[in-house]
Write a structure and sequence with these properties.
This protein is of the alpha/beta class. Helices cover 41% and strands 12% of the residues. The chain contains 15 helices and ten strands. The protein has an eight-stranded parallel beta barrel with strand order 3-4-5-6-7-8-9-10, surrounded by four helices. A two-stranded antiparallel ribbon has the order 1-2.
């Protein structure tokens, strides 16, 4: 019988309490992986802690560890949403680094696996303050689309901060998307990212209110349906996602980006379900793969048993300010041995307080997503010692 694993965890007053790990990780599911949902994990990047570049000046990436993690996701049957928000796009990862990341990921994948990699195309090489016209925004989109398509990549069409800044009406959105989608050689996934993830996107689709914004998004989709594989909605509001889903053309998929309600949205109801493109499927990849296989078998009890315990963890990782969720994702990658350090590009490892990390550790253990509990406990102790916690 294995000895109990214990860690002294501090509370918000600094008093330590002995925590005994459940230490019951979800077994890594083996192939074949057969799902009845299309599922992508938005994947993080691993920083190079030895690079001399100042974190504020650019991104230094450990390419070997970054690509090894993508192999982990692909081997579990998941697709990869590459160079998206989880990879710190727009928060440390700039367009030049994003394109290099996309190239590395596609080169490391087999032809069949490349069909499961969709990469973010946006306008982040254009400073929103420098955008003077709709034409500037279209040119920025087309530059990224052309670069990704030259690599034979598929596209997630990301929301544009520049468009949110200068659009005068919903018609500007319809015009931009019509011109941009016409240049795409395969159907794309649209991304509706809420302002809780990126405050600069407030009022996207021409309105801060949901109903008129939805009307514009649906107008774009209906006018360009042959160019749209699906839409990912990241609004952290299940009712809004379901409402949108029920108005989509039959050929267009709904990809949930709701890291609070994904368990029920993917499972669905008698009127439909969502596919998935989720940042939380990075740290909980094994549990997600096992749960999706159970869902495909019709074993709803197993699906709930595997995935429902991850929801409290996800709600903590994605708590407000939501844009800093990447810190929790990378912390779990460190605890789980996917990288040998807890350093992020742009120094983003500092963007959450110490009690956040102790709670992430507890909830990850309870959800069974610490794949090697002894390693995770050892790394948690090291992390706490760095913060002055002894014991």
């Amino acid at each position: 019988m294995m000895a109990a694993i214990e860690v002294s965890l501090p509370d918000e007053q600094g008093k330590t309490v002995l925590y005994r790990l459940k230490a019951s990780p979800v077994p890594v599911p083996g192939a074949p992986h057969v799902f009845n949902r299309v599922v992508f994990s938005a994947a993080h990047v691993v920083a190079d802690p030895f690079a001399a570049l100042e974190p504020a000046l650019g991104s230094s990436i450990d390419w070997n560890s970054t690509i090894e993690f993508r192999r982990h996701l692909l081997d579990l049957g998941l697709g990869i949403a590459e160079a998206m928000d989880t990879a710190q796009r727009g928060m440390g990862l700039h367009w030049s680094g994003a394109l290099e990341l996309i190239r590395h990921s596609l080169e490391a994948a087999s032809p069949h696996e490349r069909e499961r990699i969709y990469s973010g195309a946006g306008t982040d090489q254009l400073n929103p303050a420098d955008a003077r016209s709709i034409d500037d925004i279209v040119r920025a989109y087309l530059e990224q689309i052309e670069a990704i398509q030259k690599l034979d990549g598929r596209i997630v069409l990301m929301a544009s901060r520049a468009l949110a800044r200068i659009a005068k009406s919903s018609k500007d959105y319809e015009l931009v998307y019509a011109r941009v989608l016409s240049a795409c050689d395969r159907p794309v996934i649209l991304h509706w990212l809420g302002d809780m993830f990126d405050p600069a996107l407030r009022g996207y689709w021409g309105s801060a209110a949901f109903e008129p914004a939805l009307e514009t998004a649906l107008a774009v989709i209906n006018a360009n349906a042959a160019k749209v594989d699906g839409i990912k909605i990241s609004l952290l509001d299940a009712a809004k996602e379901v409402q949108t889903r029920r108005h989509l053309p039959r050929s267009v998929k709904m990809y949930t980006g709701d890291d609070f309600n994904y368990c029920d949205l993917i499972k669905g109801d008698g009127l439909g379900f969502s596919h998935a493109l989720l940042g939380i499927f990075d740290p909980i990849a094994s549990a997600a793969s096992a749960a999706l296989s159970a869902l495909n078998r019709g074993d709803i009890a197993a699906y709930d048993r595997l995935l429902a315990p991850t929801v409290p963890l996800s709600k903590l990782i994605f708590r407000a300010p939501t844009q800093y969720y990447k810190t929790g994702v990378v912390f779990l990658a460190y605890l789980n041995g996917f990288q040998h350090h807890f350093v992020m590009i742009a120094g983003a490892q500092s963007m959450r307080p110490l009690p956040y990390f102790t709670n992430v550790f507890r909830l990850a253990d309870e959800a069974g997503v610490l794949r090697d509990p002894e390693l995770a406990a050892d790394r948690m102790r090291r992390f706490l010692a760095l913060h002055g916690v002894e014991g």
